[in-house]
């Protein structure tokens, strides 16, 4: 074995080289960790902050209002046969079950239904990056958090909530959100949507009008996506802006706990109400995808009987 | 020289490490807008997508509207009626004015509606005027008549609307001016429509209004159309009126869903000092169709 | 030369190791296709080993509700070991199904295990020689009870075991009072209509009563139902379904974790189907006629099946026959 000819210099060089490599690795690793904690400033998109008011022009006028849907009214909903069967058995009194009184509406109804829309943004206080947009609650609607920080949706085994779980991204200045993990709920306050439904919303601001459109996909109850929409106008007055729904307390509304109100086959008294009031045939009132498209009017022309004047019917607020 | 190789190996290794970890840093630092995408619609990404759709803000000649379109809205579209169904798919009865902010004058006119009079006067197309046409069940055919004029045909009532872009719009231009100076005889059911590619953000600013640092980009524009000079018509097919002073403002959003469905959302806002006590706004959904095979023209009708 | 090569090699290897450790993702997958859901800081659900297993961990040790299938028991044990080094102290079986107590022999086979508890009908069914319900002795519970309510105290909380007779005559519903978690067993199944095992004493009335019991035990959030979450912009603390807090968590035999409103929907569905079948029976319809009328149609897309171990037809038949049994009493 040959002795070291250079008196140990090679070993020193090896030692220095290894040391330099290790130092480089440590420095780079540390920088990586520092960068991970520092969020890149985001484009915050378009300002949606404010108290938005609706003129109730599309549907409603509020529950019981003049343009409200009757209890058996599924016009323009792409319901499948299972949903129609559900609708035939559904009794609105079920909402008075003590177990259901605080079961607020899912996002499929509000913010497309009755009430105000108060939106604000939550920023991470150190970096200023947007964590979430929030839709404030209302009488029977829970606040909805739209997570903007890229967090994943919960897994398939995790529990659902009434308001679901929502994430959002900006697509060309339109806020596009995806909501999953909702509980079973109602379409237009009448038809069913299952807990497998997904809601995609688009918040598109034009001047001071917010066009809010939504698409509901439900493999359990819909044959194709259902589109909902609501137009909002920016209000000047924040006094009525809601952040939270008022507390909900259960009272006795005539339905005892465990009493499941429903209609047996052939006994739903509301099936022909739309026909009597508005001249619209029963098979149309039951909904279905074909009722959404212009060509369905050819069928209707033979079966629709327009009332001479608007019917005077009973709603919670009086006349139709 | 002695330690040159030490320095060289350290520098070289640092370079390797930087390159290797670049994907990791990119994921951590990525802004939340994962959805920020190419221009919407039908893959018309070549048409003026990205910045400077109109050139250098007055220094260059403005691009034609067609070239600066942020999306492609040409083709065949069908309305999807899921809301306000019984006021749209079928003609509602007289007095069914719910949810339209009519003033007293408007209510009186609506309550006195008689379709026979419209038929006798040859005014069956009153319900097919611009202010209500897009809210009807209808199919659309949209095409470029020329580089600055968009044409829209409807099979309901066989109507044609012409959207003229105010001029070849430079990037950052906003509201088109609307004038209402035409003589009464020149009014039409569809009026005069002026179009512009509008931005949702103040142009030429670094952000502001919550914009957080990014200037307007062409892909984020939408079509805004202002229509005046309309003949008096009906907002509903039961005589709910709008007058000749009505101004129609429409906003067109076009996008593609993840499943490939192309959608167009039209926000329709009507201002009418004669019959409405506030602005009336509704939203209509349209879905793109592969072809025009379901095109089914029907004449104007006062009763159906 | 060789020294330089060695130095470069060592250096690169070290750096690759460092990078790998920063990029590694932390998953929640157990072995053998198990999935673990952290329901509370001290409570987990293990899915994928048969019926869901509830795992309560605390200073006294581990309390298990159900042990899954025999085949998955080793993997379940390995998963528990990832969660804690505490010994298994107590096991509760919610019924006599092989996918519920199949792991008793493995998971109950430790000196630390005080007892494997179940309703006495579980042992009766398991020990019935020659019967299709018979199970090997090593799977039998070591502690049985017949009262409607049993209780033990582990890990600083009371644990109530309620007897139910929906799926079978030996069902138990287990309620962890401080954790506010209920393990329901086969009385509740998010993936299908409830399995009503008539041969083992199950009944539709018992099933509805069991679901009502679950609803009674589960408390939903409220009255402050509609308050925005506090600290939206703050970092989310790790684990425990933190993105969606609120209300009693109910672990079914299969499927996702339920809360009270989900139970109400499930109960309402079962009641309506029961009432509809009874309505047809009162009209004199035969089973075939009732099947043809599709009384469960409204929920078939969600809970029904046309093939597999429990179909819609089987469910309708079970309800029909259960109602017939009621009539003949």
How many helix segments of chain A?
Answer: 5
Helix content of chain A: 10-25%
Count of individual beta strands of chain B: 11
Q: Could you give the order of the helices and strands of chain A?
A: HEHEEEEEEEEEEHHH
Give the low-pLDDT segments of chain B. Answer: 22-57, 168-184, 204-215
- In DSSP terms (H or I, runs of 4 or more residues), the helix count of chain B works out at 5
User: What is the terminal-to-terminal distance of chain A?
Assistant: 108 Å
Q: If interface size is counted as residues with C-beta under 8 Å from the partner's C-beta, which chains form the largest one?
A: A-B, 89 and 89 residues
What fold name stands as the CATH topology of the domain at 50-59 and 103-234 in chain A? Lipocalin
Strand count, sense and barrel status of the largest sheet of chain B are: 9 strands, mixed, barrel
Strand order of the largest sheet of chain B: 1-2-3-4-5-6-9-10-11
Just give the CATH class of the domain at 50-59 and 103-234 in chain A. Answer: Mainly Beta
Q: How does this structure look, described?
A:
The complex is a heterotrimer of chains A (320), B (304) and C (329). Chain A is built from five helices and eleven strands, in the order αβαββββββββββααα. By secondary structure, chain A is an alpha+beta fold. In chain A, strands 1-2-3-4-5-6-9-10-11 form a nine-stranded mixed beta barrel. A two-stranded antiparallel sheet of chain A has the order 7-8. In chain A, a hairpin with an 8-residue loop joins β3 (130-135) and β4. The radius of gyration of chain A is 28 Å and the shape is elongated. Helix content of chain B is 16%, strand content 24%. Chain B is elongated. The N and C termini of chain B lie far apart (95 Å). Chain C has two domains: 35-262, Ribonuclease Z/Hydroxyacylglutathione hydrolase-like (Metallo-beta-lactamase, Chain A); 269-328, no CATH class. In chain C, α6 (204-217) packs antiparallel against α7 (260-282) and α7 (260-282) crosses α10 (312-328). Chain C is globular. Chain C is built from ten helices and twelve strands. The chains are: A alpha+beta (320), B alpha+beta (304), C alpha/beta (329). Chain B binds chain C through residues 5, 9, 13, 16-17, 20-21, 24, and chain C through 4, 7-8, 11-12, 15, 19, 22-23.
């Amino acid at each position: 074995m040959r002795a070291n000819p250079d008196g140990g210099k090679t070993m020193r060089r090896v030692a220095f080289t290894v040391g330099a490599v290790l130092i480089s690795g440590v420095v780079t690793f540390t920088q990586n960790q520092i960068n991970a904690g520092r969020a890149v400033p985001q484009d915050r998109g378009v300002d949606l902050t404010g108290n938005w008011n609706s003129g109730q022009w599309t549907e409603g006028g509020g529950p019981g209002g003049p343009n409200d849907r009757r209890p058996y009214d599924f016009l323009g909903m792409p319901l499948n046969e299972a949903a129609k069967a559900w609708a035939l058995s559904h009794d609105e009194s079920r909402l008075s079950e003590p177990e259901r009184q605080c079961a607020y509406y899912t996002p499929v109804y509000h913010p497309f239904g009755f009430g105000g829309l108060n939106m604000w943004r939550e920023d991470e206080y150190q970096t200023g990056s947007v964590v979430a947009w929030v839709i404030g609650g209302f009488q029977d609607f829970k606040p909805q958090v739209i997570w903007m920080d890229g967090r994943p949706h919960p897994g398939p085994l995790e529990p659902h909530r009434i308001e679901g779980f929502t994430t959002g991204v900006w697509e060309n200045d339109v806020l596009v959100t995806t909501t999953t993990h909702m509980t079973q709920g109602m379409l237009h306050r009448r038809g069913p949507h299952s807990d497998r439904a997904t809601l995609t919303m688009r918040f598109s601001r034009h001047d001071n009008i917010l066009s809010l459109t939504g698409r509901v996909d439900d493999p359990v109850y819909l044959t194709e996506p259902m589109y909902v929409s609501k137009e909002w106008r920016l209000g000047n007055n924040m006094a009525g802006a809601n952040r939270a729904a008022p507390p909900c307390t259960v009272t006795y509304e005539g339905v005892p706990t465990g009493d499941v109100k429903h209609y047996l086959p052939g006994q739903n008294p509301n099936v022909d109400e739309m026909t009597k009031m508005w001249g619209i045939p029963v098979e149309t009132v039951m909904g279905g995808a074909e009722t959404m498209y212009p060509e369905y009017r050819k069928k209707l022309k033979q079966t629709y009987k327009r009332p001479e004047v608007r019917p005077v019917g009973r709603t919670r607020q009086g006349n139709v | 020289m002695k330690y040159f190789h030490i320095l060289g190996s350290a520098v070289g290794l640092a370079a390797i490490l930087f390159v290797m970890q670049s994907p990791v840093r990119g994921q951590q630092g990525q802004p939340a807008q994962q959805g920020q995408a190419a221009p919407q619609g039908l893959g018309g990404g070549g048409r003026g997508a990205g910045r400077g759709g109109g050139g250098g803000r007055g220094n260059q000649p403005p691009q034609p509207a067609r070239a600066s379109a942020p999306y492609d809205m040409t083709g065949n579209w069908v309305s999807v009626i899921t809301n306000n169904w019984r006021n749209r798919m079928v003609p509602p009865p007289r007095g069914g004015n719910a949810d339209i902010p009519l003033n007293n004058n408007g209510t009186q006119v609506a309550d006195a509606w008689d379709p026979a009079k419209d038929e006798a006067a040859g005014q069956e197309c009153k319900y097919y005027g611009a202010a209500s046409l897009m809210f009807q069940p209808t199919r659309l055919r949209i095409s470029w008549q020329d580089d600055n004029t968009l044409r829209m045909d409807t099979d309901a009532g066989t109507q044609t609307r012409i959207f003229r872009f105010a001029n070849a719009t430079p990037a950052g231009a906003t509201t088109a001016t609307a004038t209402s100076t035409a003589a009464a005889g020149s009014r039409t059911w569809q009026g005069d429509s002026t179009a512009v590619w509008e931005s949702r953000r103040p142009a030429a600013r670094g952000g502001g209004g919550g914009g957080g640092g990014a200037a307007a980009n062409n892909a984020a524009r939408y079509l805004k159309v202002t229509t005046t000079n309309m003949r008096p018509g009906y907002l509903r097919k039961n005589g709910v009126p709008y007058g000749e002073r009505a101004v129609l403002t429409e906003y067109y959003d076009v996008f593609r869903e993840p499943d490939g469905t192309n959608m167009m959302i039209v926000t329709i806002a009507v201002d009418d000092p004669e019959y409405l006590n506030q602005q009336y706004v509704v939203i209509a959904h349209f879905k793109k169709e592969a072809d025009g095979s379901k095109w089914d023209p029907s004449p104007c009708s006062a009763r159906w | 030369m060789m020294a330089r090569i060695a130095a470069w090699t060592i250096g690169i290897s070290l750096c690759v190791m460092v990078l790998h450790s920063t990029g590694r993702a932390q998953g929640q997958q157990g072995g053998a296709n198990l999935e673990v859901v952290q329901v509370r800081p001290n409570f987990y659900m293990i899915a994928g080993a048969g019926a869901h297993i509830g795992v309560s961990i605390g200073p006294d040790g581990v309390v298990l509700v159900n042990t899954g299938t025999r085949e998955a028991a080793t993997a379940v044990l390995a998963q528990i070991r990832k969660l804690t080094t505490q010994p298994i102290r107590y096991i509760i079986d919610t019924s006599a199904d092989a996918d519920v107590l199949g792991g008793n022999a493995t998971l109950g086979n430790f000196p630390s295990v005080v007892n494997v508890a179940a309703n006495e009908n579980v042992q009766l069914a398991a020990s019935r020689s020659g019967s299709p319900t018979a199970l090997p002795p090593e799977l039998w519970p070591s502690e049985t009870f017949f009262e409607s309510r049993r209780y033990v105290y582990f890990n600083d909380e009371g644990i109530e075991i309620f007897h139910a007779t929906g799926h079978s005559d030996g069902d138990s519903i287990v309620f962890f009072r401080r954790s506010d978690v209920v393990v329901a067993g086969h009385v509740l199944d998010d993936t299908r209509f409830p399995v009503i095992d008539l041969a083992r004493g199950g009944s539709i009335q018992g099933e509805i009563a069991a679901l009502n019991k679950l609803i009674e035990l589960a408390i939903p959030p409220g009255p402050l139902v509609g308050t925005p979450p506090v600290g939206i912009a703050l970092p989310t603390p790790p684990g425990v379904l933190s993105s969606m807090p609120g209300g009693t968590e109910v672990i079914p035999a299969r499927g996702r974790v339920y809360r009270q409103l989900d139970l109400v929907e499930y109960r309402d569905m079962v009641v309506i189907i029961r009432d509809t079948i009874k309505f047809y029976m009162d009209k004199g319809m035969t089973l075939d006629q009732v099947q043809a009328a599709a009384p469960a149609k409204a929920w078939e897309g969600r809970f029904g099946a046309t093939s597999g171990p429990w179909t819609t037809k089987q469910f309708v038949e079970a309800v029909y026959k259960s109602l017939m049994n009621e009539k003949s009493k």
